[in-house]
Amino acid sequence: MTIKKVIILAAILTSGLVSGQDEEKILFSIDQSPVYNAEFIRVFEKNKDIVVEDQQKGFDDYFNLFVDFKLKLVQARDLDLDTLSSYTADLAKYREQLIQPYLQNPEATESLVREAYDRTIEEVSASHILVMLKPDASPADTLKAYQKISTARNKIINGAGFDSIARIYSEDPSVQMNNGSLGYFSAFSMVYSFENAAYQTEVGQVSIPFRTQFGYHILKVNDKRKSPGEVQVAHIMVKNDSTVLRQSKDKIDEIYKKLIQGDDFTTIAKEHSDDLSSAQKGGVLPKFGTGRMIKSFEEVAFALENEGDISKPFESDYGWHILKLLKKYPIASYEELYAKLESKVKNGSRSSYVEQSLAEKIAKDYKVVTYKAKLQLYPNISGFEKNMDTLLSIEEKIYSGHDFYSYAKDIKNRIKEDLFEEFSNKMIIDYYKEHLEQTNKEFALTYQEYKDGLLLFELLQKEVWEKSEKDTVGLQRYFEQNRTTYIWKRRASLSIASCTQMEKAKLVQSLLAEGKHPDSIKSIVNEGATIHVLFSKGKLEEGSSKLPKEYSFKLGVSDIFEEEAHHFTIIKVTNIFEPQWKELKETRGEVMNDYQNYLETQWVKNLRETYSVKINKKNYKELKKRFTTE
Fold this sequence. Notes:
The protein has 5 domains: 1-78 and 442-481 and 582-630, Triger factor/SurA peptide-binding fold (Orthogonal Bundle), CATH 1.10.4030; 122-226, Chitinase A, domain 3 (Roll), CATH 3.10.50; 230-329, Chitinase A, domain 3 (Roll); 365-437, no CATH class; 487-579, Roll (Chitinase A, domain 3). The protein is 49% helix and 19% strand. Strands 14, 15, 16, 17 and 18 form a 5-stranded antiparallel sheet that branches. β5 and β6 (215-226) form a beta hairpin. α5 (85-99) packs antiparallel against α20 (441-470), α6 packs across α15 (334-347) and α20 packs across α24 (588-610). The chain starts with a helix and ends with a helix.
């Protein structure tokens, strides 16, 4: 049997309309093991397009192929091929791939992508106060940090200025420089929990305390605005000279005057900009959005309105700058950004929310019990290393404190409660994966397809492919017994010339008739880089697809053939060979394929003799009538 047939018959199970009666009716049995109508119906419905036009004969042939397929699977299991390490390893890989579509949660993903887009087109400006706290902090330290952040919030709510309270209470090292201000940001700029707090708090309001891996935060939303998108600029920078403070300002002013007079920005940037990395590119910087550059630089860049506009000189902590607007990039549509945002959702911190949503959806079908109170037994994860108390149960399966430790021990900078939530979600999903065959018929059928296909591959490898490769004596004997099958048709040694102009074709024809060599003809006909003639040569059989349809072998130079517009062919035959038998080395691939089919035919014949196949003729006739009269 060819690999194509293996694939066709291995892909035997598919969703379809199969009646309850067909699930119960036995179509045939192999050594008392039943095969039901339903299984054959799924096979036939899936592959009926390959059945020959003669439906009666096609149905019979297909049924026999299906019986042979089931016989091979029975033998494979009798030979314990389903216990081979190679089989089980490959099957495990296939199962993991196959299960992925069943682990998708498109509703949750879609919701997060839409949320991310809405936050991409609207920026938020916020200030924050941070009280640092390690993820594995003790309950006492956690309470102390929470009380401190709550005190700060209460003072602000009661009228104290956010900036002054931030300088007193915040443990963010940058607070003394920025009073806690983070400027504008949008989706994916902050950790997701911080982003949520910012977007869920109204302008002018202060959030309730919330925790991230860094500690406890509160934030005040200063403003929300439509996102300007991204911008690309070129810049010229002159560093401040600490010894001559006026010198840098004088130089940037001179450069600005040159630009106003019409001098080339790129040239001046290359010659005078102190930002060496961009100077060699004419000052061009990669495009950027808000929150990516220092505030003064960003404000000037986004204030430029038209492509080519040049800013006045302005100062930053790095020196003096002049910007030229190259291009503005407004926020693209939801449809245009969907793939990029979806990738970020699936691969970033939001993925845990997708997993959580999936776990919550799955958990509705199982009895799940969590014992969160026991998390307080130890201040950190290491305490659970030898703990065998039950922290989680899913149906009959129990997960101990040690199981939780094994999962979480190598995960750094995460809060214990968050880790347990993640652990619980992971175990629920794993339980679902392990029992998917029992709960999802579609998956069970498809997985069985893969199991049977891989098993058949192992068996064919053993019974046909390896035998044909190793049995050189058998292959030679098969070739000798069927030698009349392998015959060369009438052949000829020839050269084929192809031209795109009739004028050139006539010239080539005459030169061939003179006995010129193809290389000599090409040097005469082709004109430098312009190719007018191509040659190919070799030994071809009469009727080859490489030859004009109406051409028959004849010694010498042929007429000019035009089978397609502007495609002219001339053939020169130097020798003709009458039909003759092929040698094995000349047709080994063809003989090998035929020998494998022969081995398989003999093998199937032996299977029919080894195993008892009993067909339920009544059910068979009913099915044949059903599928050959449609």
